[in-house]
Queue: 2 jobs
Job 1
Amino acid sequence: MKIVNKKGVRILAVVIAAGFFTSSTLASAPAAKKDFNIWWYSKDNTPTGQTWAVALKEFKKAHPELNVKFQLKTFEVMNNTGAQILNSNAAPDVTEYNKGNGTAGLASKAGLLTDLTPYSKKYNWNLPSSVSLYGKYKKGLMGTGKLYGVPSYGEYVSVFYNKDLFAANGVKIPKTMAELEAAMAKFKAAGVTPLTMGGGGYQVVHNVYALAVSRANQAWINSFQLFKGKPIDASTDANIKWAASKLVSWQKAGYLPDNVSGVKVDEEAVPLFQSGKAAMMIAGSWLDGDNQTKVTTFKYGKFPVPGKLSVGSAGNLFVIPAKSKNKDLAAEFINLVLSKKYQNYLGNAGGLPLFADATAIANPAAILTATPFTQIVKKNALAMYPDWPVPGYYDILLSAGTALLSSGDVDAYMKTTGNFYNSGRPKA
């Protein structure tokens, strides 16, 4: 009779059972979800950031098979390293991206962006030329060519003003540059900071350009931005030099914060206005949502910078990187934010939608945001943004602008910024 080792039998049984359990577990395990990576840099307290977040929730619900991974980036990161990111394996499936020759133009020329023309036809986007021109690039130049990006909102730079301080000091909304300076002088005499500004950040870039285009015309914009018509010598241009000189004169007159060259925008300049300690702030509509939340002790309004043209355009772009692994899904999300549902949502959140139903917008804050923009658009006075024309121009404008406020040397500013622009401008 063969003797069987009971211990061995038990071990064998355990091994067989373990193998059966493992096989059953593997067979019934759910398939891994596919990653979908989406980035933007519009903050949660902005109308655009709020709107896109709600749209993303709907997108997630419609695609339970996806592992949606969202990352909040910053303007600075995408402006400085966006091309390197898009050219790497870390590129997202869809992202907000800066418009202009130096950013989206450079990326499209390098083959880093997907042509969205087929998706535009599929979803019947019907983008008007005044909107699509910011997403179209040919050989890296904005305005014509293939559609590489789509904006879903508008933005502009105007003057935020403290209504209470204006009323207390008998100041009316300035209609001319002379009236604006007279108002600042009156506030200065009353011990109020006339105009808050972050000279250590993007406001100095926008403010110099805002002054320059207040004297310019569309022919100048076409030449400076789109390289059409007579070339501009930016090292000697009268509009830019006048703007740089005017900003220095405001500093010397005490109209700007003390040590303005070192003032940070979001951490110091904007809170100064929101606290009620500054009468005015030349800033972008992307601060509307933040001001609606944080301005609680006074009433404020907005008016265009006095002059001919104003800084502004359709907003930044949603683009699909060439290395996106989910291009169709990315286009589906873009189509969602362009839909009437989310364009109307954006308007009621206080943003500037491009395709909303006017009758669907009831938020008073949205009306405050839209009124100056409507005035500017009616005059055909949008002047784009200063850093668009040539790659790397933003960093030069920022460093030179900070140095301008620190030294007061207008000639040095013109030489630094002008030579960089002139060398980067396409040769005929």
Job 2
Amino acid sequence: MKKSVLLASLTSAAALLCLAAPSFADDAADGLARAKANIAKYQSKPQFTAPGEPFDAKSCAKGKKMLSIPNNSGNPFLKGIIDRMKTAGAEVGLEVREWENQGQPSQWVQGVEMATREKYNIIDLISGIDPGTIEPQLKAAKEAGVKVMTSHFYDPSFKQNPVVSSSLTIGFGEIGTILADWSAVATEGKANIALVISKEVPPTIPLVENFKKQLAANCPTCKIVQEINVGVTEWGTKIQPAVQSAVQAHPEINVVIPIYDSMSQFVIPALRLAGKTGQVKVATFNGTPFVLDYIQQGLADMDIGESLDWIAYATVDGHLRDACGLKTPTALNVPFYIFDKSNAAEAGTPAKFDTGYGDAYKAGFRKLWGIQ
């Protein structure tokens, strides 16, 4: 009798496992299908959407000047945006200057004080400087009549510092979801990831949170094997040995995600030194030409690109609207575009900034500004 009961129990358990297995497989397949559908949205050529009503940009910009302060002038992505803001600003008469620095808060302070002293109209904190770190100086600038604005910095989920007049946000959380879904699809649901981040840069927070959330939702079999946190000023000395050590200590790692392009210049050598080139997939964000070259050379696999020129036009547009008392956009509204081995050559060989996105935005902004 006891044997019969035991046999019946085992038979029932086996039946339940058989029922459960297809359900788990179905869930995994559904997750990958969702991930593929999300990625597909970023594989079509970006379209221009007007950020606001037309205005007389030349009249608005007349006599105005803007100081743009990046978190570090050594970042080629930010340097590229500012150079293009100078050109876009010149089209309507806005003087744009970069405050060059090496990522030190004391240098940011000097820039703010100079802008205050020389009566700039706009201080643009671009991509990485938390206004709270230099708040006393920014308050003094605001009291002196300088408008403090941010661009390519706040995620839409962030609460804006009160000293800031307006912010042109970017979907860093959205970037996190794209990177997570790509990792799942690229490995067919078997991603073992080394995630390279910089917690000191505020946009990292929503990016990483959404990466983890999306990975759990669409690829529960994927996992982050190691999270490598490196401060911006230490990227050049610490990323390469940290990544090399990680992939050697954890041979199961098959994806490395340096969340910002400029990290990749230290990740690629790490994989080469570890003998992992071509074995470990690399995906990142920004669309910097040297990374697009890596893709063409087979050293990296995917880059979420943004047109720097598009960002520059959008920043000039948004900041001018604020400076002239017009309704200001709450986001840059610059589309993301996925580059991989199928289309990286569209960026040029060697790759160039702003190539591969189309140029509809230029005619769009010029029409909005009344100069075309």
